[in-house]
Amino acid sequence: MKFGKVEHPELIDFSMPENHPDTEILLSEQEDKGESNIYVGCAKWNRQDLKNFYPRGTKDELVYYSSQFNCIEMNATFYRIFPAEQYQKWHDKTPEGFKFFPKMTNEVSHLRRLNDKVYEIADRYLEVTTLLKEKLGTIFLQMHNNFGPKNWDRVVQFVNYWPKEFPLAMEFRHTDWFTDEKVAQELYHLLEENNIANVLVDTAGRRDIMHMRLTNDEAFIRYVGANHESDYARLDDWVDKLAEWKAMGLKNIHFFVHQNLELESPLLSAYFIENLNKKLGTKLTVPSTLLKNKPNTLF
């Protein structure tokens, strides 16, 4: 993952930004909906990326992965729309309570850039994605770095089109969405009015995307480690922040762990889950193979 990568992460100020003032207002207005829904996972389940995670002799990576984590951020669906039977297989292989958070196909976000040709593609995407049934979590749409506010009308049209029965999160990367206060407020208002989550990206080289502005009762967080010892301290800060937001009224926490070079994503995820359990009193499963082989230098 090259986005936000820096050569010297030790020079980056990773201090957690203050809450956006409207986040506190929004959370204070949330009605009590019972227990929190907390999902933590990696971006991929293939053996090549999750090195040293699978026990020797593992035959089916998804079956094993889903026995250790309660969700997956599905980057694979960004690159193509899979055949219907594949979604059914994914559904059937995973246990009750497991969730998929699939990425919208790049035909919609990058190739056609939300133009008027994307709606048929989005409908086709949703038709097969719904085969994940009760295991379908929030779908997320990530726009290209160069997709800026001049495309505002396309964003509005897409948001108005989107079937509201499917939870959606949107990730904007062009700097002008956040550096122009008027533009930012219009975007946040649009997302809030349509119950769409505003994706938070914690990555070294783009601290402006740590806008700390939630637009509904879902914190959809894409954490990108820098392959540096600071990765763990940053996760500690997120545990504290999520505990703070939960106390304010946050109900849905969806946290996905990446690294620039995918070497320790399962370890980082396990570390985060273990500390989140301690802080929030939750009982998320900590991957058993990682518990047995925790390196003292990291934990």
From TrEMBL:
Pfam families reported in the protein's UniProt record: DUF72
UniProt xrefs under InterPro entries: DUF72, UPF0759_sf
Gene3D superfamilies xref list: Protein of unknown function UPF0759
PANTHER family associated with the record: UNCHARACTERIZED PROTEIN YECE, UPF0759 PROTEIN YECE
Transmembrane segments: none
Signal peptide stretch: none
Species whose genome carries this gene: Flagellimonas maritima
Name listed for the protein in its UniProt record: UPF0759 protein YunF
